[in-house]
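Tutorial sheet, problem 5. The two components below are modelled jointly, 792 residues in total.
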Amino acid sequence: MSKKSRKLIRATPAVENAAAEVTPEAMQPAPERTFFFLPDVEPVEVDERELHDEMKLWRHGRATRTIGQLLADSYVMLFSVVVIGAMVVSVVLRAQAGMTGCNTEACASGRLLLPSAMVLACYALALGMAALFGPVLASAAEGSWLMDAPISRRRLLRGRLVVPLVGSFGVATVFTALVGALSGLSWLQVVAWSAAAGLGSSALVALAASEQPLERTRILKTLQVIFASAALILLLVVIGVAAGWLPVSVVAVAGGATWLLAGLAVVALVALVVLLRVTLSRLESIRRARLLSGGSLVSGMQGAMFALDFGLIRDILVERRMIAKGHVKPTRGRGLGLMALVWRDVERLRRSPSAFLGLAASLFVPYAADALRMVQLNPVISGLALVAGLVPFLGSLRVLTRTGGLARSFPFKTAQLRTAAMAVPAGLALLWGLAASPAFIGIARSGADRSVLDGLSAALVTAIAGLLGAVRWVTAKKVDFQTPMMATESGAMPPTLLFNLFRGFDMVALITAPLILGFPAYWSLVIATVVFVALRGSFNAEDLRAEQEAAKRELAASKKAATDRQKIPRPTR
Amino acid sequence: MARKTPVLKVTNLTKAFGPVVIVDGFNLEVAAGEAVALTGRNGAGKSTVLRCIVGSERPDDGTIEVNGTTVSETNPQIRRDVATVIDDLDFFPDLSVVEHLDLLARAHGIRDADDAVDEVLHEVQLVPQSGQLPGTLSSGQRRRLALATAFIRPRKLLILDEPEQRLDTEGVEWLADRLVAERQRGLAIVMASHDPTLVDRVATRIVRLGDRAEVLADE
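Model answer (structure tokens):
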């Protein structure tokens, strides 16, 4: 410390209850140290399998409960899962039996096209997930401790392919089988469609793994776009046939399709084997950074999943995408005050046009729901779809609410900031409502049959519900683990953890409830107004608490002053 | 000579985390043109005091006033007067460095935002990174951006928590010069720092927070 500092410290008057005496420490004798050096011999060759087994052993050593104890602790949950699973299977079997006998045009188109769309969607999802996570990945610890060692990466990492391959196969098979059975396919057809979905997804994951060491993504992205677009087109055809816009003859090829799907499954199996061999030959040259980025993403997501914080998961993904983007062409802002914030959101629309894809996709939902005769539930289903479509547009609101630092930099009230950040998404929701209004008025022969005014009101309520659901989703606070916990069969749990599962959905259900129950739309608008006022932060709990505490302090001070005044000295005689 | 009206007045500030009392009856007054450095060992309560001053932490007892207004994190007047560089500053992941500064300048009503942004950007030496997204900046560059967000806007009180962190030697020198200039222009500054150069050059008063953290006996 310099002379001036010492002088300043000495000259500083002691701050009441804050400064402390600095006591000089006694000189300690230097400790005697010994150093270890490796003996000058060649190290033995490492067996990766043994190394892996040893790591497994260490992990087992750190386990605090056996699997038996875990099952015993969560038996109620397991029992519930088994019961609900049995009920779902029973419902699926009965629905399959019922749907097989359905011969309407909507059934015929749905029977072939919905499972086919599911197969294509599974392919797109498998490619997307594989490209996002790796699919071969390693944890940060493995990257630090193992990747530096002279070991074969191929032998160490080949086991890592099992989880993504089996996972993609399992998920695609189960969901396609479910959709196929519910659409009324025969069991043989269900097997063909599921096998094509499962084996095809695994083959595509193997393709992503084979491209990972070469760090190429173009083929994967192209295939993903093709599969996603094809799935969307098939869904549009289903809606078109159900609404009577397309003739049913366009889908009357179900018999041949079964053999086509079975052939696709065989081709996928062969491709899977070939691509696996290619991947194994390339794994040796995979870069550590490429492995660790997937590992860090998984660990971040695991942490967020434990808190059921899906907003945080999205934050991690957005941050990752932006890091990959790295650089943008800066644009000049416009306006002053709150207008500057709104204008930035307008600029964002131009910068991230991909967000419109989700919003456009959500626009199909009300039409599909109407075509499939789900008139009563259309507002809540479409509202939820709109929540998913609008979340990417609420990026600035998310950042302004997740930590206080940035919001503190702006000279506005919380309510003003939130309202400004909602302005552009609100405009988009309004446009969505207008575009979706034909679906609420009624497009299909068997769908809704509302007057234009009622249809427009329903569309408007749905749009508002979607907007406020999305706002609720992005502004929800993190789970507070310091609050008193709730005792459950699975252990202590903070009460807010469960609410995290329903955030967004709760607002949509609340606002659309009057429509579903057959009440006039203005009830929904009244509820939406209350929700809006609450969500924009008008009733900031912390502010109210601070005001309450200040009032309490003032009251205590005035009481004390009054008591002091009343102390009248005894008159002396 | 009469003492100037304090920009910041902290009275009897007390803050505990569970049974551990971090700050106990802390008092501080800072007038315009004064720079107070809070020093002390790790855990002495420097950051806690600063977080209470900016309103991100609620004190258990005591009052904090900025220009006569009781501090609340959401009070727009406080937000207008107090510029902060503490660890909870977040950035928009999709806005570039220059766009952050432009947005803040415009939000604070600065008409010549372009000139102001240009000047600050040169000063914090982030011109080559002006189009970069915050996620790609190094930790030192992020710190420079955080400091730039405090200097681009009007302010009466500057709160800094270890502003020298992650800055290179040249950066610390620049920061010291900048803070001295700010102080001489009448700004009130409260900063926590472990850097003797910065404390030595900037502070007009040093407050050493002692080992006040004490564990109260359980009932």
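Marking note: Residues 429 and 463 of chain A are 5 Å apart (CA to CA). Full credit if you identified this.
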